[in-house]
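input
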Amino acid sequence: MKYKFSHIALSTSSQDKRVLPIATQVYEILSNAGIKVSFDLNLEKLEKDTKIKHKSSNYIIKNAELLIAIGGDGTMLNCSRRYGSKGVSILGINLGKVGFLSDIAPNEMTSRLLEVIKGDYVEDKRFFLEASLEGKKGIHTALNEIVIHSGAIAQLIEFDLYIDDSFVYRQKADGLIINSPTGSTAYSLSGGGPIVHPGLEAITLLPMFPQNLSTSPLVVKASSKIKVNLINSKLKSQLSFDSHESLMVKGRQEIVISRSKSELNLIHPKDHDFFEGCRNKLGWSSGLVKEQN
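output
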């Protein structure tokens, strides 16, 4: 049988003890199907099997057609930034508690993997966000959210917000969450932000504990250029990306955030349904289920 993929890589950033046996099982499934398998260096501690090839990120980006991320959403975010932003499709095996990005459970792994390699799957395009700082080189990306915050307990930052060069407001708050639809079920959700269907071309802005009580979450088109001007010249702030990478921002600073040109191609089983995931992972309709049972 001719399979959809000829070269698949595996990765993780999880310390979960289940990762190694699952990675071994995935390797056996794919190898038995005649598919070339590479492990990235995060799996280098796997058993000393000479058949298993540990490869650099650059090698995987150039050669792998699909990357299987084993872990929770943290692993998926890590793999998405490292590989997905470079054009490698991502499939997740979920070892986490929520897992909106990775949706294959370990107990159904064999059947689901066989379906995927036969081409029985759906593709799900997600866009990244990127940020740049005035006067500094480098572009920083995030899949879920970019957060501007004080970095200190009970300390407000003050900023002016512009959308496409139009002034929106001046705000004092603990910070500001700028998230993609993918990130609407992550940090933004815990702050009271809206759940945005991943198919929508939109960006959400959510002030964190704003001093102005009338401030509400703001949803803008994904093509918007978002500019945040920090006002207080004496305070230090932080800029974080998917709660993983952080930058210190000193004093007055202009931060520009926009949609990145990079896209993530997520691979899901054929019967994947976003709203079913919300019901299962957020406990929607739990009372109705109990009544029916």
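quick obs: The longest helix spans residues 19-32.
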